[in-house]
Design brief:
homopentamer, about 325 residues, alpha+beta, 9 helices, rod-shaped
């Protein structure tokens, strides 16, 4: 059993909403489950296949459910295996703007006697455990309260990430419409990828939690449905925002194309206008550089200065005109 | 109780459709509720968490519902907590074209005995109170009438904002297709954002009001369903318009790209055409600027003037031609 | 009652499918309704609020339904108020290609005893009245037949407008792909707006007529359902076409961007190619315009003509080449 | 009755799966129907209104159904009029790639006693008749078998057209991504129109056949449902392909814009690069064409040749560089 | 019967989860089926029509089902013909990045007595047979287990292909946003085609497996539903990813247009800026190349060098400025 210690984060029995003192071995936890006194909350982190096997034997988890827990590449879902509910959720964090969002996975096996949480990647639950332990009167309702607290925590995380992404989108919008010569196409595209990842975490969970709210699972007592409805509501809010993000980013990509091409065309127009102005003296000078025997202007006393003045005048007139029509 | 005064906008008891004279303290209001004589309408504005706590205690509001009311970041929804209905709506105003729409939130706790409105941001209800108080025979039907009046008022506000946005879209369309050298990409994008905000206020409410119309909540007496159906109808009209806006703006963004690139290309073409015309005299002058010993034209009496005339002729011909094909 | 005369277009009692001779005053019409002999068909055009009030009193119309009829900004719908059905439809005409489609509104109050039509904007019904009066055996089925005839007429109008728009779309397509230097972006966008207006008239009606076909309203006798199913079918056909229009116009806008940018780039390429050709003589002439003491070519007898010939040759070769690769 | 002969393609009585010898007049066909011996299959092609009238009288067809059959502008549908089923399908052929697909219409009136097919446009049914007549044991099941054979034939036609369009799309894709200087925007757009036409023929029929499969019509015996399910399946396959076509064509239009603009920009870049190279000799030659008294280079013995060599060197260096960065 | 040998891959009887030793002829297999001892698993590969005929006779397969098996152009589906279930799935492999995905077809006829697999194209099942034969306790549940194992295998294949495509999409994204002068429009488009093919294999199967999970087919015993739910879950995950791919690729195409046009415009701007710089010496040199009698600068001692220095200075200043604004 020694090998199991590393992946067990915390393991405790809760009776009448209170944590029984002392740490438990896995056998003791299994025994406590079967004794029908309170329930066990076992927290695991990235267990190996064999570790999960031995836990599955102890708590009679379904073979397919365990397979899901090892691979950690599941869609968010709620599924019933016999008496035990398997809830799979994605945890989403956004630790560093440069790297985008990070998606972890959390699997929760829950029935009246135990709740086992299996965590892959980010998504610490110790704060959740502290919070539920601080409300013994609530915790007395059983494992469903713990499941609610976990979902509430995860969905709050979605909200935070959505908030962060909202900020990033606004930053990118400012860049798109700024006078600066920037092309944030890559940022917009990366945001689209992030939003898609978030969507794929949130949207299937919405459906899954809906099934809980509708009371399909006896494992969740009826008096808790209002709490899960609250989670469902937050999920819908996040989904609504995420859908809005997708629409905005798609428009931003198109608007960026317009802005970038406008700015680049302005540069080209400016350069071309200057070249056009420079073509005038070249042309005039070329004419008076011709070698005809009879070119009366060449012999005028102030011919040269007159021509210089003429050139300057025409160039200035062109400059004024180009300025007025907005080409310079 | 003194601290509560600031956030209470108005508080009154209504019996048989008539307002009982005099202001109420919170205790009196609570007592009036329990006495089953008429109903209380309590109007709050941005209450603090503690203020809401004490109101929740007085009127037995559900913990989760109160949490929603403090945060004021809910989706529009209708939810039943025990006997009490919680209706959350977004109020939308468009005070200033430069700043886009502003979204507030209004939470309504309503059952047979009381109606409590909690307002965040804009969305004054005093005009609603005046209107319902002026129709005592209607008001005698109870709190449902007040809820209807509030929803009707809020949804009328949506209609007004949709009207304003419609005007702005038409203005931006004119700009897109005007001969002016403008690029309203940013305005179009901002309108898309506004329309999305409006959509997110309107669409979930549609669903929520639908549940009222279908008679899922006993708190709304059957004789009022026709009134809520009317609200529902207005909401659908607004939703229809908003969906139209989204489609139009998406097309406008694309059309704008076309127009902007057409106009910029026209400028470039014009400049290039002038440069091409100027290349002709430069070329001819270059040839007669060569220093060959034997260039018979150079010694002709009118060689210079002939060449000048030739250049002018060619340039004029080019100008005519470019004008005809639309390049100038 | 005199004030009412202006807005009443026609008012008659129909017994056993036949029109009773003579015009009716409003009181007579009301009395006829109550007598259960046949039914009354009252046609109004843009009545004022007070006029509608008095009619509502005479025929016991619901307050909310009357409100709808005054404002004339309803979504198409079918609603039951007590015994009376309110049918709201949009009438669509396309009088002038330059101004796009015009949308009017038609409200029909119908029960076993009367049918009241309130018209706003275009949408003359006299032809409908003539047609139903010419088929007394059908008209004997009661007010439902009149409602069918009206809907059939309105939906035929949709079909005509869809036909016109189809023609306009084909015209704009030809323009997009023509060799002409046109940019029909604005026409495409205007067509999108028209199609959207048509869609918003047609789509909600589809839903509403579906409810009639499914037999939700007792006011429409069962033997007429096949007729309304026929109307429903025509509506679906129009909706299908309108959806096709939206897709086509969206593609046309994109294709137009391609065509316009292709044509403009072709112009630029042509101008640039000519400028490139002109650069050759300028360059060569420049070289022989240098003032070095020792430039043997300058002293050759036919140096000048050789160079001229060379320049002509190179330019012609370039011209041939540019022609071949499609740049000229 | 003579006038009817032209539009009757074939008319026969089938008893126990076998065709009774000899041609029938319309009266004989009507009589055969009423005799309950086998069934009549009457095939018409583009009958006039009066011709259809007399047939409707003979076979008691519903007035609205007959109206549909005359106009031939129906949506695909299955509708029950009394005992008789009216099935409307679009026949689609693609005779000539230059002209796109052609849509005809086929109306089938079918009940236990007769099956009347009314054809508008293409869509010969003689091959279907041959096939069913060659399987008497199947044909003995009655008119439903004929209806199945017709639908099977029509839906096979959809599959063929989808196949042809698939080939055309692949051809256009090759053109989009070829190195050739082509702009297949118009072909893509025309394919979009064709696909839309095909979609409008196929999609509503899917729904209609679904109703048959679900057994809503007693006219189709239960033992044939599997056959209609097979038709339904083929329809879904075609619909799936058609939806794929729409998506592909929309992407192809966008990709084409990219390719066309890339190719055109490459041309411009190439021309500009050559102009830039030609600017160097012009510039250098200009400098040595100046008329200053003191320009030592001019008097060097090999000044001219040195400068020529220099110019050639610089131009060659530029050429190499432009080649390397991909501008030439 | 000899002709059948080629297309039979493997044929065995399974009793109590164990394979009965020895190969079977087709007659023996048919006899084994009828004896109700265990079940037969017959594996075919691309059988001809006659071969299938004889198998259909032996196992009483439905005519339409057999027709499907010959053509091998079916949509994925699950259909019941009498007692026998026909499951059609597409096998997808991605053997070579240059050629995209390859789609094969697998038809499974399954009832309590036999399971017949008909394979077209890729999709070897020998590994599946090995796996199920290694778990006799599971295999004892009957043919449903084999069907599950096949579906599990096929859906795992989808997951692998989705993984490969994901990698390809990321590669193309890197190319889009790289500094290199590449235009991966064609790759993006080809990926869109692949994703569409994958979608058309996956999406209809999702629906079909859903019907199994919901327990519509008695052929699949209830204790296996959890296993099929697992397959369903994997399918949904793949579908989710595929939908994400479609959205990403559509954005990538748009982003690529932006990037390509930005890079090409940068090239043009650079070339034009150099041409503009070169225009300055040309212009100045032209002026001092004029042949006026009185041009004092020409006679200055250091006039030439001063002008050269001036030209160099101006060109350098321009170069600095263009560098600063990002044009070079």
């Amino acid at each position: 059993m020694a090998i199991l210690r590393g992946m067990i984060v915390d393991c405790a029995v809760y009776e009448h909403g209170k944590r029984r003192a002392g740490d438990l071995t896995l056998d003791q936890a299994g025994a406590a489950c079967r004794s029908n006194e309170g329930f066990v909350w076992l927290g695991l982190v990235e267990p190996s296949a064999e570790e999960l096997e031995s836990i599955a034997r102890e708590f009679h988890l379904h073979e397919l459910a365990v397979e899901d827990a090892v691979k950690a590449q599941q869609r968010p879902k709620v599924e019933l295996f016999g008496e035990t509910l398997l809830v799979v959720v994605k945890t989403v964090t956004h630790p560093d703007p440069a790297h985008g969002i990070e998606v972890g996975e959390l699997l929760v096996f829950v029935n009246a006697d135990f709740i086992i949480t299996v965590r892959h990647g980010d998504g610490e639950l110790s704060s959740v455990r502290e919070r539920v332990e601080s409300q013994p009167e609530r915790l007395a309702h059983g494992t469903g309260v713990v499941l609610y607290a976990i979902l509430d925590h995860v969905v709050d995380g979605y909200g935070d990430v959505a908030q962060t992404i909202d900020g990033e989108i606004q930053a990118v919008e400012r860049e798109v419409f700024s006078a600066e010569r920037t092309n944030p196409a890559e940022q917009i595209y990366k945001l689209e990828r992030e939003v898609l990842d978030l969507y794929r975490a949130v949207a299937p969970l919405l459906e899954a939690v809906d099934e809980i709210v509708e009371g399909r699972f006896d494992a969740i007592p009826k008096e808790l449905h209002e709490y899960f409805r609250d989670v469902h509501d937050h999920l819908r809010r996040v989904t609504g925002r995420v859908n809005g993000f997708r629409e905005l980013l798609s428009s931003a990509l198109q608007a960026n194309l317009t802005q970038v091409s406008v700015r680049q065309n302005e540069d080209m127009r400016k350069i071309s206008a200057w070249v056009a102005i420079a073509a005038v003296p070249t042309m005039v000078a070329g004419i008076y550089g011709m070698n005809f025997d009879h070119m009366p202007e060449l012999h005028w006393r102030y011919g040269y200065f007159t021509v210089l003045a003429l050139i300057a005048l025409v160039c200035f007139a062109l400059y004024r005109r180009f300025k007025r029509v907005g080409w310079l």
